[in-house]
Structure formats: structure tokens, C-alpha cells
Amino acid sequence: MGERVDIFEVGPRDGLQNEQREIPVAEKVALIDCLSKAGFNRIEVASFVSPKWVPQMAGSADVLAGIQRVGKVRYAALTPNMRGYEDALSAKADEIAVFASASEGFSKANLNATIAESIERFKPILEAARHIDLPVRGYVSCVTDCPYDGPTPPEKVAEIADTLFALGCYEVSLGDTIGQGTPDTIAHMLLAVRETVPVTRLAGHFHDTNGRAIDNIDAALALGVRTFDSAVGGLGGCPYAPGAAGNVATEAVVAHLERLGYETGLDLGIVEQAAQMALAMRAE
Ligand code: HMG
Ligand code: MG
């Protein structure tokens, strides 16, 4: 049996948060119910952020209430502040995520806060989650390039990843938010981050804007990363990152990893079925 690589499905959140059309809760629920059968351990399905900032995620509590939960799957939600944390708990999210940026420009655009202010908002979330053993994931955005500030120094990414890990995030997902990374810049960034956070606690979150996400996954695999975020159908983008095309497509990542001999535990047929659903949602 090949070595295991874990895929974290983010389509219902990172994918759908960026669609222009208002997608009914029932359609989101149907997509997630399909994904639940594919074998994922974790699916990001919701985001408890301000609906004024991201109207597409306004129905997140209804989505979590409507899905058919499959035993082993953890259904995850983004929480930018304590208000989001409380809402995620009420909606019975199985895990949550805080999201910081490695660049000040994106932090301001995405959270209306400096990096330092955003970390201060996350501290009480991590403190509260620790008391109830709720797993918290951490994101770092713009790990190679920022749409506002240009190239991101690898040391800055290492600093923010280290901060989130030290505060209690069980895993830190490194986001090439605008898909400008290359195998070279991804490798430089990872070499710096690996110095501060164990590589087994890192995930790659690559957007495919320039068609390089799979090459970037290969660069990360070579440096020991074994967890990747992706979205069925290549859904996605980020409302506060102009030019951020879709996340790398889950079906492409699974097929690629299988060709390389890795084990994903996923049923590619069901993943492809979910991808068709996702693409139909986008087209409507
Ligand atoms: P703000 O305007 O600075 O803060 O927003 P505020 O406290 O003045 O709140 C504004 C309004 O939102 C108020 O309502 C609050 O009550 C309300 P009003 O009084 O005007 O009626 N509010 C909330 N409502 C619902 N849920 C909440 C919440 N908090 C406040 N949790 C804030 C600050 C953080 C709220 C805002 O900037 C925000 O929601 N940002 C989220 C942006 C976002 O979701 N971006 C996409 C996700 S990040 C991403 O995609 C990157 C990632 O994929 C990795 C990668 O690719 O790099 C993770
Ligand atoms: Mg993203």
C-alpha cells in the first residue's frame, strides 16, 4: 500500500464563497452529502463571517443543520472572531479554523485588521476551543505573493505559522491565495516554515490561477508535506484577492497522487460526481 496523503476538501466553503450567484442552501447540502460519501476525513462546509463581507456564506448555520453527517467526517467552519466561534458552536461544527495573512495588505482587505490585531482576535477563540477539545486549524494566506504587497518573505510566513501553531492550531494550512507561487518560491517558503512548525502539521493550500498548483504540490511533497487542500471542480477564488482563480481541483489532485503511488482513501468516482455537481452549480 502506498504512503498516505490526506486531502482536505474546501469546495463548499472556499469554492462557493466566491460564486456570483446566490446558491440555495439545498444545493450546498446536496453537494456536501455527496462529498461525505467519498471518504474525506474533513470537509470545510461553512464560514461564520460577516454576511456584509461575504454574503455567499450567510446560510452557513442552515447548511450545517441540513447535511446528513457521516460518522468519521469532521465538518469544518471558518471563524474570524468570537462571534463567529459562538455561531460555529451553536451550529455544531466539528472543527473550526482561524485565518491570518502573512502580508499586511491582504490582512487589511480580508479582515479589516493588521496581522497583529487578527492574532489578538484569535487568542480567545483558541483558548475557548481548548477547554472543549474542539480542533482548530490555522490558515496563513499569501504565503508566496500578495495582491497588494507583492512577494512575501518566507521568514514572515514562518513567523505567522509558528504563532498559530504555538497558540494551539493542530495544523497550519499554507495558502497560495492568488496562485502566483512557483515550485521554487513554494520550496523556499516551506524550507523556512519547516524550521518552526513540524512538517507533519503543515498543509498546502494552492490556488490554480496560473495552472501551477499541481507542480507546487509536487514541490511540497518533495519537502515532506502530506496534507493538501483542494476543491471539487476547481471551484473558488477569494473575494478579497483579486485574480484568485479556483482552488486546485480535488479530482485532479487525487488522480495525480494515485499516479504517483500515494494512497488517499478517496473514491475517485464519487469525487468526480461531486465535481460535476459543483460545475453545474457554477454554470447555472
Ligand atoms: P469589520 O467590519 O471590521 O467589523 O469586519 P465589525 O466588528 O465592525 O463588524 C461589521 C458587521 O459585521 C457588524 O454588523 C457585526 O455585527 C458583523 P453591523 O453592526 O454592521 O450590522 N459581524 C459578524 N456577523 C456575522 N458573523 C461574524 C461577525 N463579526 C462581525 N463572525 C470581520 C471584521 C472580521 C467581521 C470581517 O472583516 C469579515 O467577516 N471578514 C471575513 C472575510 C472572509 O471571509 N474572507 C474569505 C475567507 S479567507 C480565505 O478565503 C483565504 C483562505 O482560503 C486561505 C487562502 O486561500 O489563502 C482561508
Ligand atoms: Mg483559499
Features:
11 helices, binds 3-hydroxy-3-methylglutaryl-coenzyme A, 284 residues, two-stranded antiparallel ribbon, TIM Barrel, 10 strands, 8-stranded parallel sheet, binds magnesium ion, alpha/beta
Could you describe the 3D structure shown?
The chain is an alpha/beta fold. The chain has a single domain (6-281), classed as TIM Barrel. It is 42% helix and 17% strand. The chain has an 8-stranded parallel β-sheet with strand order 1-10-9-8-5-4-3-2. Helix 10 packs antiparallel against helix 11. It is globular. The model has no long low-confidence stretch (mean pLDDT 96). Residues 14, 17, 47-50, 52-54, 78, 80-81, 83-84, 99, 110-112, 139, 141, 175, 177, 205, 238, 240 line the site of 3-hydroxy-3-methylglutaryl-coenzyme A.
